[in-house]
Amino acid sequence: MTGRRARVRAPAAGEPAPPPLAPGTRPAPGYEILRHLTRTGWLDLYDTWSEERACRCVVKVVRPDRRDEAVPRARLLREGRWLCAFSHPHLVRAYETLEWPEPLVVLETLTGETLSHLVHRLRRRPAAGDVALLGVQLCSAVHYLHGRGLLHLDLKPSNVVVDCGHAKVLDLSVARPPGRAPAGLGTFRYRAPEQARGGPLTAAADVWGIGITLYEVASGDAPFDPRGTAEVTDDGDHHRCPLPEVSTPPVGSRRRLPRALAAAIDGCLGRDPSARPTVTELAASLGAILPAYGPRMPSPGSPGDGDVATFPRPT
């Protein structure tokens, strides 16, 4: 293996993108690809065997047709360095970040499901206690990031994995310190109004992200019509990022919830960032709900009753 990086021509318009790396490929010494997991606009994720650790892990690399672009490479390395330095029970862990032969981040393998998969798989909505507990865990991870000077800015169901009631937040690819940011940062249907507009961003943007994630988990859908899918971006691509010009419909209009839980979720989704609770206040409000409403522990084989379900737990 040489130190020279092979150049991969970006596909022309209408031309298919190059295929993912094949099983058996070694993206870096000590790692062997088992299978391709998913592809985004600029990344490939692989189920990979780590010889040093003698276990499976997830390898995150820039797509072959984007490798010559400086921004994706720098973004991936930045995320990897942060995750290697951080340690929190509700934040995905990184084992290693490599710059050669290509930028690469090695992450722990998570055995649960993303919230987006889980919510659409369940026939019934999660129990109120499970929603509140999820919110407390998200607040814990976000509070940790804020304490290290970062906003996540892309909180959404597909960036949270839940396993036996334990949540982990993924993806710091658009994270940044508080302050001014380009318009359209984040994912279309989940970004806070101030992210869509552009301008100073504060911890309140992540409170919106927690709230809209809990809204979708509790009700089964996000409050706004996505009008198609938009790519996560930090390059000012705001022409595809229309603002939610109408107030968020109360979560109670989608599903009957305990009043305190509905109020906590709705409070996160005020258009004025200063009107939203702090992360600490939100965690306290959600935590106060838990003694009365769960989380629920079903007996083996019991799906729950009424119109609610529990997140999968050990039986």
From TrEMBL:
Listed GO MF terms: ATP binding; protein serine/threonine kinase activity
Superkingdom to which the source organism belongs: Bacteria
SUPFAM superfamilies: Protein kinase-like (PK-like)
Family matches, as CDD domains: STKc_PknB_like
Keyword Transferase tagged: yes
Keyword annotations of the record: ATP-binding, Kinase, Nucleotide-binding, Serine/threonine-protein kinase, Transferase
Annotated segments matching region Disordered: 1-27, 227-255, 291-315
Residues spanning the signal sequence: none
Domain Protein kinase as annotated: residue spans: 31-293
UniProt cross-references to SMART domains, sorted A to Z: S_TKc
InterPro entries for this protein: Kinase-like_dom_sf, Prot_kinase_dom, Ser/Thr_kinase_AS
Enzyme Commission number(s) of this protein: 2.7.11.1
Enzyme class: transferase
Pfam families found in the cross-reference section: Pkinase (PF00069)
Name the record gives this protein: non-specific serine/threonine protein kinase
Species whose genome carries this gene: Streptomyces olivochromogenes
Top-level taxonomy: Bacteria, Bacillati, Actinomycetota, Actinomycetes, Kitasatosporales
Gene that specifies this protein: pknB
